[in-house]
Amino acid sequence: MSLKHAILSMLVDCEKSGYDINKEFSGTIGYYWSASHQQIYKTLATMLEQDWVSFRTVEQTDKPDKKFYQLTPSGRQELIDWASKPCKESPDRNELLIKIRLAGTHVPAEVLINELQRLLEKQQQRLAIYQDIKQQFFEPAPTMQSNPQMATSYLTLRYGTSTLEAKIAWTKEAIKTLQQ
Amino acid sequence: MSLKHAILSMLVDCEKSGYDINKEFSGTIGYYWSASHQQIYKTLATMLEQDWVSFRTVEQTDKPDKKFYQLTPSGRQELIDWASKPCKESPDRNELLIKIRLAGTHVPAEVLINELQRLLEKQQQRLAIYQDIKQQFFEPAPTMQSNPQMATSYLTLRYGTSTLEAKIAWTKEAIKTLQQ
DNA sequence: CAGGACATGTAATTGGTTACATGATTGC
DNA sequence: GCAATCATGTAACCAATTACATGTCCTG
Protein backbone atom coordinates (compact mmCIF):
# COMPACT_ATOMS: atom_id res chain seq x y z
CA MET A 1 0.00 0.00 0.00
CA SER A 2 1.09 3.55 -0.54
CA LEU A 3 -0.20 5.01 2.68
CA LYS A 4 3.03 3.86 4.23
CA HIS A 5 4.95 5.65 1.52
CA ALA A 6 2.82 8.76 1.79
CA ILE A 7 3.69 8.90 5.48
CA LEU A 8 7.36 8.17 4.83
CA SER A 9 7.43 11.08 2.38
CA MET A 10 6.01 13.39 5.02
CA LEU A 11 8.78 12.43 7.41
CA VAL A 12 11.58 12.74 4.87
CA ASP A 13 12.75 16.18 6.01
CA CYS A 14 11.66 16.41 9.63
CA GLU A 15 10.17 14.40 12.47
CA LYS A 16 6.44 14.59 13.07
CA SER A 17 3.80 13.20 15.37
CA GLY A 18 0.80 11.16 14.23
CA TYR A 19 -1.28 14.18 14.99
CA ASP A 20 0.86 16.38 12.71
CA ILE A 21 0.58 13.81 9.93
CA ASN A 22 -3.18 13.73 10.31
CA LYS A 23 -3.33 17.51 10.06
CA GLU A 24 -1.38 17.42 6.81
CA PHE A 25 -3.76 14.85 5.38
CA SER A 26 -6.66 17.07 6.41
CA GLY A 27 -4.99 20.00 4.67
CA THR A 28 -3.72 20.37 1.13
CA ILE A 29 -2.26 16.86 0.89
CA GLY A 30 -5.82 15.66 1.45
CA TYR A 31 -6.55 16.77 -2.10
CA TYR A 32 -4.54 13.86 -3.47
CA TRP A 33 -4.21 11.50 -0.54
CA SER A 34 -6.28 10.89 2.53
CA ALA A 35 -6.31 8.75 5.63
CA SER A 36 -8.13 8.75 8.93
CA HIS A 37 -6.23 9.23 12.18
CA GLN A 38 -7.01 5.63 13.18
CA GLN A 39 -5.37 4.36 10.07
CA ILE A 40 -2.39 6.65 10.51
CA TYR A 41 -1.68 5.42 14.04
CA LYS A 42 -2.10 1.82 12.96
CA THR A 43 0.21 2.29 9.99
CA LEU A 44 2.83 4.03 12.14
CA ALA A 45 2.70 1.03 14.49
CA THR A 46 3.33 -1.44 11.68
CA MET A 47 6.09 0.72 10.23
CA LEU A 48 7.68 0.75 13.65
CA GLU A 49 7.68 -3.07 13.63
CA GLN A 50 9.15 -3.03 10.13
CA ASP A 51 11.85 -0.65 11.34
CA TRP A 52 10.96 1.97 8.75
CA VAL A 53 10.42 4.61 11.45
CA SER A 54 11.45 5.21 15.04
CA PHE A 55 10.09 7.64 17.60
CA ARG A 56 10.94 9.61 20.68
CA THR A 57 8.37 10.68 23.25
CA VAL A 58 8.08 14.37 23.97
CA GLU A 59 6.50 15.05 27.33
CA GLN A 60 4.29 18.07 27.61
CA THR A 61 2.75 19.45 30.77
CA ASP A 62 -0.25 21.35 29.44
CA LYS A 63 -1.04 19.00 26.54
CA PRO A 64 -0.89 15.21 26.13
CA ASP A 65 2.54 13.77 25.45
CA LYS A 66 3.41 13.26 21.81
CA LYS A 67 5.48 10.81 19.84
CA PHE A 68 7.75 12.27 17.22
CA TYR A 69 8.42 9.85 14.40
CA GLN A 70 11.41 9.93 12.08
CA LEU A 71 12.69 7.75 9.27
CA THR A 72 15.17 4.99 9.95
CA PRO A 73 17.85 4.38 7.28
CA SER A 74 15.87 1.43 5.94
CA GLY A 75 12.69 3.53 5.86
CA ARG A 76 14.48 6.19 3.86
CA GLN A 77 15.82 3.57 1.47
CA GLU A 78 12.37 2.04 1.08
CA LEU A 79 10.91 5.44 0.20
CA ILE A 80 13.54 6.08 -2.45
CA ASP A 81 13.18 2.58 -3.92
CA TRP A 82 9.41 2.98 -4.04
CA ALA A 83 9.59 6.41 -5.66
CA SER A 84 11.85 5.02 -8.37
CA LYS A 85 9.50 2.19 -9.26
CA PRO A 86 6.71 2.59 -11.82
CA CYS A 87 3.35 3.56 -10.38
CA LYS A 88 0.85 0.76 -10.17
CA GLU A 89 -2.39 2.03 -11.54
CA SER A 90 -5.13 2.08 -8.97
CA PRO A 91 -8.56 1.41 -10.40
CA ASP A 92 -10.89 4.33 -11.03
CA ARG A 93 -14.16 3.84 -9.22
CA ASN A 94 -16.69 6.49 -10.06
CA GLU A 95 -20.17 5.83 -8.79
CA LEU A 96 -21.55 8.91 -10.51
CA LEU A 97 -20.99 7.30 -13.90
CA ILE A 98 -22.97 4.23 -12.87
CA LYS A 99 -25.85 6.49 -11.87
CA ILE A 100 -25.61 8.53 -15.05
CA ARG A 101 -26.21 5.44 -17.15
CA LEU A 102 -29.52 4.88 -15.39
CA ALA A 103 -30.75 8.40 -16.15
CA GLY A 104 -33.74 8.73 -18.44
CA THR A 105 -34.55 5.03 -18.32
CA HIS A 106 -34.60 3.72 -14.75
CA VAL A 107 -34.18 6.99 -12.85
CA PRO A 108 -35.67 10.34 -13.91
CA ALA A 109 -33.13 12.57 -15.67
CA GLU A 110 -34.13 15.40 -13.37
CA VAL A 111 -32.84 13.56 -10.30
CA LEU A 112 -29.42 13.25 -11.89
CA ILE A 113 -29.46 16.84 -13.09
CA ASN A 114 -29.97 17.97 -9.50
CA GLU A 115 -27.09 15.83 -8.35
CA LEU A 116 -24.85 17.16 -11.13
CA GLN A 117 -25.74 20.70 -10.16
CA ARG A 118 -24.85 19.97 -6.54
CA LEU A 119 -21.53 18.49 -7.63
CA LEU A 120 -20.84 21.40 -9.94
CA GLU A 121 -21.12 23.82 -7.04
CA LYS A 122 -18.75 21.79 -4.94
CA GLN A 123 -16.30 21.55 -7.83
CA GLN A 124 -16.39 25.29 -8.36
CA GLN A 125 -15.84 25.91 -4.67
CA ARG A 126 -12.84 23.65 -4.70
CA LEU A 127 -11.45 25.33 -7.79
CA ALA A 128 -11.70 28.67 -5.97
CA ILE A 129 -9.68 27.18 -3.11
CA TYR A 130 -7.02 25.99 -5.53
CA GLN A 131 -6.84 29.46 -7.06
CA ASP A 132 -6.43 31.00 -3.61
CA ILE A 133 -3.61 28.60 -2.80
CA LYS A 134 -1.96 29.47 -6.08
CA GLN A 135 -2.10 33.19 -5.36
CA GLN A 136 -0.90 32.82 -1.80
CA PHE A 137 1.98 30.45 -2.33
CA PHE A 138 2.87 30.06 -5.97
CA GLU A 139 3.08 33.52 -7.44
CA PRO A 140 5.33 33.93 -9.32
CA ALA A 141 5.41 30.27 -10.39
CA PRO A 142 8.42 28.55 -8.82
CA THR A 143 10.98 26.77 -10.99
CA MET A 144 13.14 23.72 -10.39
CA GLN A 145 16.22 25.94 -10.29
CA SER A 146 14.92 28.54 -7.87
CA ASN A 147 13.01 26.23 -5.55
CA PRO A 148 12.55 22.56 -6.41
CA GLN A 149 10.34 21.81 -3.40
CA MET A 150 7.94 24.59 -4.33
CA ALA A 151 8.10 23.68 -8.01
CA THR A 152 7.03 20.08 -7.38
CA SER A 153 4.35 21.14 -4.90
CA TYR A 154 3.08 23.53 -7.52
CA LEU A 155 2.86 20.63 -9.98
CA THR A 156 0.55 18.78 -7.59
CA LEU A 157 -1.63 21.86 -7.40
CA ARG A 158 -1.61 22.15 -11.19
CA TYR A 159 -2.76 18.53 -11.38
CA GLY A 160 -5.66 19.39 -9.12
CA THR A 161 -6.71 22.45 -11.10
CA SER A 162 -6.41 20.98 -14.56
CA THR A 163 -8.27 17.76 -13.80
CA LEU A 164 -10.88 19.70 -11.84
CA GLU A 165 -11.42 22.13 -14.73
CA ALA A 166 -11.99 19.15 -17.01
CA LYS A 167 -14.49 17.71 -14.55
CA ILE A 168 -16.33 21.01 -14.33
CA ALA A 169 -16.55 21.22 -18.11
CA TRP A 170 -17.87 17.66 -18.25
CA THR A 171 -20.41 18.26 -15.51
CA LYS A 172 -21.82 21.22 -17.44
CA GLU A 173 -21.94 19.14 -20.59
CA ALA A 174 -23.70 16.31 -18.77
CA ILE A 175 -26.32 18.70 -17.38
CA LYS A 176 -26.97 20.01 -20.89
CA THR A 177 -27.28 16.54 -22.34
CA LEU A 178 -29.71 15.40 -19.66
CA GLN A 179 -31.78 18.57 -20.09
CA GLN A 180 -32.45 17.79 -23.74
CA MET B 1 -20.12 -0.10 -1.10
CA SER B 2 -21.03 0.60 -4.67
CA LEU B 3 -19.81 -2.64 -6.18
CA LYS B 4 -23.18 -4.08 -5.27
CA HIS B 5 -24.86 -1.21 -7.04
CA ALA B 6 -22.59 -1.44 -10.05
CA ILE B 7 -23.61 -5.09 -10.39
CA LEU B 8 -27.28 -4.30 -9.83
CA SER B 9 -27.08 -1.73 -12.62
CA MET B 10 -25.65 -4.34 -14.96
CA LEU B 11 -28.59 -6.63 -14.25
CA VAL B 12 -31.24 -3.94 -14.61
CA ASP B 13 -32.28 -4.88 -18.14
CA CYS B 14 -31.35 -8.54 -18.46
CA GLU B 15 -30.08 -11.52 -16.52
CA LYS B 16 -26.38 -12.30 -16.53
CA SER B 17 -23.91 -14.77 -15.10
CA GLY B 18 -21.00 -13.84 -12.85
CA TYR B 19 -18.77 -14.59 -15.78
CA ASP B 20 -20.68 -12.13 -17.99
CA ILE B 21 -20.43 -9.47 -15.31
CA ASN B 22 -16.70 -10.02 -15.04
CA LYS B 23 -16.35 -9.65 -18.80
CA GLU B 24 -18.15 -6.32 -18.68
CA PHE B 25 -15.85 -5.08 -15.96
CA SER B 26 -12.89 -6.15 -18.06
CA GLY B 27 -14.35 -4.24 -21.01
CA THR B 28 -15.45 -0.63 -21.29
CA ILE B 29 -17.06 -0.47 -17.85
CA GLY B 30 -13.61 -1.23 -16.51
CA TYR B 31 -12.66 2.32 -17.43
CA TYR B 32 -14.76 3.65 -14.58
CA TRP B 33 -15.33 0.67 -12.37
CA SER B 34 -13.44 -2.53 -11.77
CA ALA B 35 -13.64 -5.70 -9.74
CA SER B 36 -11.97 -9.08 -9.76
CA HIS B 37 -13.97 -12.22 -10.47
CA GLN B 38 -13.44 -13.39 -6.88
CA GLN B 39 -15.03 -10.24 -5.57
CA ILE B 40 -17.88 -10.47 -8.04
CA TYR B 41 -18.82 -14.02 -7.01
CA LYS B 42 -18.58 -13.12 -3.34
CA THR B 43 -20.71 -10.03 -3.80
CA LEU B 44 -23.31 -11.98 -5.77
CA ALA B 45 -23.46 -14.45 -2.88
CA THR B 46 -24.11 -11.72 -0.32
CA MET B 47 -26.68 -10.05 -2.57
CA LEU B 48 -28.42 -13.39 -2.84
CA GLU B 49 -28.64 -13.52 0.97
CA GLN B 50 -29.94 -9.96 1.02
CA ASP B 51 -32.54 -10.93 -1.55
CA TRP B 52 -31.40 -8.29 -4.01
CA VAL B 53 -30.83 -10.90 -6.73
CA SER B 54 -31.99 -14.40 -7.54
CA PHE B 55 -30.61 -16.92 -10.00
CA ARG B 56 -31.48 -19.87 -12.14
CA THR B 57 -28.98 -22.51 -13.18
CA VAL B 58 -28.53 -23.10 -16.87
CA GLU B 59 -27.09 -26.49 -17.62
CA GLN B 60 -24.72 -26.76 -20.52
CA THR B 61 -23.27 -29.93 -21.96
CA ASP B 62 -20.11 -28.67 -23.63
CA LYS B 63 -19.29 -25.92 -21.10
CA PRO B 64 -19.62 -25.64 -17.30
CA ASP B 65 -23.09 -24.87 -16.02
CA LYS B 66 -23.82 -21.22 -15.40
CA LYS B 67 -25.93 -19.25 -12.99
CA PHE B 68 -28.02 -16.48 -14.46
CA TYR B 69 -28.68 -13.73 -11.96
CA GLN B 70 -31.53 -11.26 -12.11
CA LEU B 71 -32.84 -8.48 -9.88
CA THR B 72 -35.49 -9.17 -7.30
CA PRO B 73 -38.08 -6.41 -6.73
CA SER B 74 -36.20 -5.28 -3.59
CA GLY B 75 -32.91 -5.27 -5.51
CA ARG B 76 -34.47 -3.07 -8.18
CA GLN B 77 -35.84 -0.74 -5.52
CA GLU B 78 -32.46 -0.58 -3.79
CA LEU B 79 -30.77 0.38 -7.07
CA ILE B 80 -33.24 3.17 -7.74
CA ASP B 81 -32.99 4.47 -4.18
CA TRP B 82 -29.22 4.44 -4.34
CA ALA B 83 -29.13 6.19 -7.71
CA SER B 84 -31.34 8.96 -6.32
CA LYS B 85 -29.11 9.61 -3.33
CA PRO B 86 -26.18 12.05 -3.47
CA CYS B 87 -22.84 10.49 -4.37
CA LYS B 88 -20.50 10.05 -1.46
CA GLU B 89 -17.14 11.35 -2.52
CA SER B 90 -14.52 8.66 -2.54
CA PRO B 91 -11.05 9.90 -1.67
CA ASP B 92 -8.58 10.54 -4.46
CA ARG B 93 -5.40 8.59 -3.91
CA ASN B 94 -2.70 9.39 -6.39
CA GLU B 95 0.69 7.93 -5.63
CA LEU B 96 2.29 9.69 -8.57
CA LEU B 97 1.80 13.04 -6.85
CA ILE B 98 3.59 11.80 -3.74
CA LYS B 99 6.51 10.75 -5.91
CA ILE B 100 6.52 14.03 -7.83
CA ARG B 101 7.07 15.95 -4.62
CA LEU B 102 10.27 14.01 -3.98
CA ALA B 103 11.70 14.85 -7.41
CA GLY B 104 14.79 17.01 -7.50
CA THR B 105 15.45 16.67 -3.79
CA HIS B 106 15.27 13.05 -2.63
CA VAL B 107 14.91 11.34 -6.00
CA PRO B 108 16.59 12.47 -9.24
CA ALA B 109 14.24 14.44 -11.48
CA GLU B 110 15.27 12.20 -14.38
CA VAL B 111 13.75 9.14 -12.73
CA LEU B 112 10.40 10.87 -12.49
CA ILE B 113 10.67 12.24 -16.03
CA ASN B 114 11.05 8.67 -17.29
CA GLU B 115 8.03 7.56 -15.34
CA LEU B 116 6.00 10.50 -16.63
CA GLN B 117 6.99 9.64 -20.18
CA ARG B 118 5.90 6.04 -19.65
CA LEU B 119 2.58 7.23 -18.27
CA LEU B 120 2.13 9.69 -21.12
CA GLU B 121 2.41 6.89 -23.64
CA LYS B 122 -0.16 4.82 -21.80
CA GLN B 123 -2.48 7.80 -21.55
CA GLN B 124 -2.19 8.48 -25.25
CA GLN B 125 -2.88 4.85 -26.06
CA ARG B 126 -5.97 4.91 -23.93
CA LEU B 127 -7.14 8.13 -25.54
CA ALA B 128 -6.83 6.45 -28.93
CA ILE B 129 -9.04 3.63 -27.66
CA TYR B 130 -11.63 6.13 -26.49
CA GLN B 131 -11.59 7.80 -29.87
CA ASP B 132 -12.08 4.44 -31.59
CA ILE B 133 -15.03 3.66 -29.36
CA LYS B 134 -16.49 7.06 -30.14
CA GLN B 135 -16.22 6.49 -33.89
CA GLN B 136 -17.58 2.97 -33.73
CA PHE B 137 -20.54 3.52 -31.46
CA PHE B 138 -21.28 7.18 -30.97
CA GLU B 139 -21.27 8.80 -34.37
CA PRO B 140 -23.42 10.80 -34.79
CA ALA B 141 -23.62 11.72 -31.12
CA PRO B 142 -26.78 10.22 -29.60
CA THR B 143 -29.31 12.45 -27.83
CA MET B 144 -31.63 11.82 -24.91
CA GLN B 145 -34.60 11.96 -27.28
CA SER B 146 -33.30 9.59 -29.92
CA ASN B 147 -31.59 7.10 -27.63
CA PRO B 148 -31.28 7.77 -23.91
CA GLN B 149 -29.25 4.63 -23.21
CA MET B 150 -26.67 5.57 -25.82
CA ALA B 151 -26.72 9.21 -24.76
CA THR B 152 -25.85 8.37 -21.14
CA SER B 153 -23.23 5.82 -22.20
CA TYR B 154 -21.73 8.48 -24.40
CA LEU B 155 -21.55 10.79 -21.39
CA THR B 156 -19.44 8.23 -19.54
CA LEU B 157 -17.11 8.06 -22.53
CA ARG B 158 -16.96 11.87 -22.64
CA TYR B 159 -15.99 11.84 -18.98
CA GLY B 160 -13.14 9.49 -19.81
CA THR B 161 -11.86 11.54 -22.71
CA SER B 162 -12.08 14.95 -21.12
CA THR B 163 -10.40 13.96 -17.85
CA LEU B 164 -7.80 11.99 -19.77
CA GLU B 165 -7.01 14.93 -22.02
CA ALA B 166 -6.48 17.06 -18.93
CA LYS B 167 -4.17 14.43 -17.49
CA ILE B 168 -2.18 14.27 -20.72
CA ALA B 169 -1.78 18.04 -20.75
CA TRP B 170 -0.64 17.98 -17.13
CA THR B 171 1.81 15.14 -17.75
CA LYS B 172 3.44 17.12 -20.55
CA GLU B 173 3.60 20.18 -18.33
CA ALA B 174 5.15 18.16 -15.50
CA ILE B 175 7.81 16.76 -17.83
CA LYS B 176 8.69 20.28 -18.96
CA THR B 177 8.89 21.56 -15.41
CA LEU B 178 11.14 18.73 -14.28
CA GLN B 179 13.36 19.19 -17.34
CA GLN B 180 14.18 22.76 -16.35
C1' DC C 1 0.05 -30.55 -26.60
C1' DA C 2 -0.09 -25.85 -24.87
C1' DG C 3 -2.77 -21.96 -23.99
C1' DG C 4 -6.96 -19.50 -23.84
C1' DA C 5 -12.01 -19.23 -23.26
C1' DC C 6 -15.55 -20.92 -20.41
C1' DA C 7 -17.32 -21.16 -15.51
C1' DT C 8 -17.22 -21.29 -10.60
C1' DG C 9 -15.49 -20.72 -6.31
C1' DT C 10 -12.51 -20.78 -1.16
C1' DA C 11 -8.97 -18.96 2.00
C1' DA C 12 -5.74 -15.77 3.77
C1' DT C 13 -4.30 -11.33 4.13
C1' DT C 14 -4.18 -6.44 3.71
C1' DG C 15 -6.26 -1.97 3.62
C1' DG C 16 -9.85 1.15 5.04
C1' DT C 17 -14.06 2.78 7.55
C1' DT C 18 -16.95 3.28 11.53
C1' DA C 19 -17.74 3.16 16.21
C1' DC C 20 -15.98 3.54 20.72
C1' DA C 21 -12.72 5.47 24.27
C1' DT C 22 -10.06 8.91 27.20
C1' DG C 23 -8.75 13.30 29.10
C1' DA C 24 -6.66 18.04 29.67
C1' DT C 25 -6.71 22.97 28.11
C1' DT C 26 -8.46 27.13 25.77
C1' DG C 27 -11.80 30.35 23.92
C1' DC C 28 -16.75 31.98 23.38
C1' DG D 1 -21.09 25.17 30.19
C1' DC D 2 -20.00 23.69 25.36
C1' DA D 3 -17.24 23.14 21.54
C1' DA D 4 -12.71 22.97 19.63
C1' DT D 5 -7.82 21.79 19.72
C1' DC D 6 -4.45 18.74 21.30
C1' DA D 7 -3.05 13.77 21.44
C1' DT D 8 -3.40 8.85 21.40
C1' DG D 9 -5.33 4.71 20.58
C1' DT D 10 -8.60 -0.23 20.37
C1' DA D 11 -12.15 -3.16 18.27
C1' DA D 12 -15.31 -4.58 14.92
C1' DC D 13 -16.40 -4.70 10.51
C1' DC D 14 -16.38 -4.13 5.51
C1' DA D 15 -13.93 -4.08 1.00
C1' DA D 16 -10.33 -5.51 -1.98
C1' DT D 17 -6.27 -8.08 -3.34
C1' DT D 18 -3.59 -12.23 -3.80
C1' DA D 19 -3.01 -16.94 -3.77
C1' DC D 20 -4.96 -21.33 -4.37
C1' DA D 21 -8.33 -24.66 -6.62
C1' DT D 22 -10.90 -27.38 -10.37
C1' DG D 23 -12.23 -29.07 -14.87
C1' DT D 24 -13.85 -29.06 -19.97
C1' DC D 25 -13.69 -27.67 -24.71
C1' DC D 26 -11.60 -25.50 -28.67
C1' DT D 27 -7.87 -23.59 -31.51
C1' DG D 28 -3.29 -23.18 -33.38
Helix content of chain A: 55-70%
pLDDT < 50 stretches of chain A:
none
Gross morphology of chain A is elongated
- In oligomeric terms, what are we looking at? homodimer
Radius of gyration of chain A: 21 Å
How many distinct helices of chain A?
Answer: 7
Average pLDDT, all residues of chain A: 95
What is the element string of chain A, with H for helices and E for strands?
Answer: HHHEEHHHH
**Classification by helices and strands of chain A:** mainly alpha
| Record field, number of beta strands of chain A | 2
- Residue share in β-strands of chain A: 5-15%
If interface size is counted as residues with C-beta under 8 Å from the partner's C-beta, which chains form the largest one?
A-B, 66 and 67 residues
Characterize the main sheet of chain A: 2 strands, antiparallel
Distance between the termini of chain A: 44 Å
Strand order of the largest sheet of chain A: 1-2
Summarize the structure.
2 copies of one chain form a homodimer. The first copy, chain A, is mainly α.
